[in-house]
Write a structure and sequence with these properties.
- The structure is a single chain.
- The protein is an all-alpha fold.
- It is built from 21 helices and no strands.
- Helix 13 packs across helix 19.
- The longest helix has 37 residues.
Amino acid sequence: MIDLTNTPPAKSLDEINGTVSVPTNAGFWRTLAAYAGPGALIAVGYMDPGNWITSIAGGSQFKYKLLTVILLSSLIAMLLQAMAARLGIVTGRDLAQLTRDRTSKGMGIFLWIVTELAIMATDIAEIIGSGIAIELLFGIPLIVGIAITALDVLILLLLMKLGFRKIEAIVATLVAVILFVFLYEVILAQPNMAEVVGGYIPHTELVTNDSMLYLALGIVGATVMPHNLYLGSSISQTRSYDREDEASVRKTIKFTVVDSNVQLSVAFVVNSLLLILGAALFYGASSDLGRFSDLYNALQNSQIVGAIASPILSMLFAIALLSSGQSSTITGTLAGQVIMEGFMHLKMPLWAQRLLTRLFAILPVLGFAIYYKGNEAKIEGLLTFSQVFLSVALPFAIIPLIIFTSNKKLMGPFVNKPWVKWISWIIAIVLIGLNLNLIYETLR
């Protein structure tokens, strides 16, 4: 049943909350190893298939100019995820729970709807990416591949029985596969490193060129994802610590943030590699490279990518795509549960809850695929738009996060420092301004 009263729900992700033990008097590296894991689950959301299209398209259209957007997005992500983790660790509540508790019923439902739409937008990329990877690797029709991704929730249920550390290890392995595949392909592409370094320097064309701004916002939306803030505030509580002991809380915050920043640095490298690959191989190419299958075929076409063309490159691309989609769907399902429980106080058996949160997102995508009879071009046309929508939805998660972490009564000695507070507000205001401009230009 769904409870819309103000009765507080159970602990966030109650079945894994506080289940991972950590050493009390160990050295830095052993302690960090115990805390490592949640960062990997957060990082996969920053390198999901939605990033692939926007980043590779950014490189193929504007060469290295959008690398600065990836850098800024990654720095923003590190700041916001650190705030989300601190919120969960200090309060013992996740962002969805606190938002529901501290807003009116109407506002809570509105924010829940926006967040659920953001989850759907995230799942569009993850589901389509996994479905296409299955099609490319095994020749299974796209509609069937998309339907198969619904079984991800059953895989997650099985993994939960094995323990949360097993999930962390599996996701970290999939992240490593993605990293090494694209590092290998970029090394073969031999990009101009001077131009690559220059791409990280900001320039005014980012806001004066409408096409570049649209892709830039797509990269921001694909990189800084609203659902990750909710998930981060929840899984930061998986470690066993004494919430009443300030030293224990401080230690947990320290190592959780280190883990998060290390893994988000990996995500930054992967996203940079994607854009560099798009620029090095496809900039100026006359072929249409806006779809996963186009990229798959281009990597074995010597007329497009030159002498490095190889079926092996294409297969590695598809394997990385499947790894990205599968790891992202695991974390997306967990985030869906956090949001559903926190906002709606959903009470039902765990298996049914996970199935509902997954199907809530997958059915619209499957319906779209059936309507267009598995037409890949039509289905993938949703991807860039979905990433731009995530950028539009992002302030609805950032603003409550800033308000809560800046609340001295709620956070005590762990309240935002003034510079964190003001930088966060500047980020939120700039994003809102850019999004309003994008909507205006699109309608005009």
